[in-house]
Amino acid sequence: MSKRFSERILTYLQRPGYTPIQEARLARAMGIAEAERGDFHDAVDALRRVGRVIMGTNNAVMLPHMPGQVVGTYRANPRGFGFVVPDEPTAHGDLFIPPGDSLDAITGDKVACQVVPRGKREGKKAFGGRITRVIERGESRFVGHLSKEGDVNYVMPDGNTLHCPILIGDPKAKGARAGDQVVVEITQYAREGSPARGVIVERLGQAGRPGVDLLSIIRQYNLPDAFSPEVIDETRKTIRAFDPEAALREREDLSDRTIITIDPDDARDYDDAISLERLGASGNGARTSRNARGARSPSRGAAWELGVHIADVSCFVRAGSTLDVEAQKRGTSVYFPGHVVPMLPEALSNGLCSLQEGEPRLCKSAFIQYDAGGRVVSTRFANTVIHSTKRLTYGDATSILEGGADSGAGRGRQRFANEVVALVKCMDKLARSIRKRRLAEGMLVLELPAVDLILDDQGRVVDARPEDTSFSHTIIEMFMVEANEAVARLLERQDVPFLRRIHPEPDDDSLEAMARFVKAGGMSLPRRIEVKDLQKLLERLRGKKGSYAVNLAVLRSMQMAEYSPKHVGHFALASRSYTHFTSPIRRYADLMIHRLLEEHLGGGRSGKKRGRLGRASAPVSGGDELAEQGRKLSYLSRRAESAERELKALKVLTLLAEQVGDEFDGIVTGVTNFGMFVQHPKYLVDGLLRLEDLGGDWWEVDVKTGRVVGQRSGRSFALGAAVRVRIVSVDLSSRQLNLGLVASEKGVGRKAGPSADSRKSARGGPARRGAERQKGKAGRGRTGQRRR
Question: Does a structural domain hold residue 781?
Answer without folding.
Answer: no
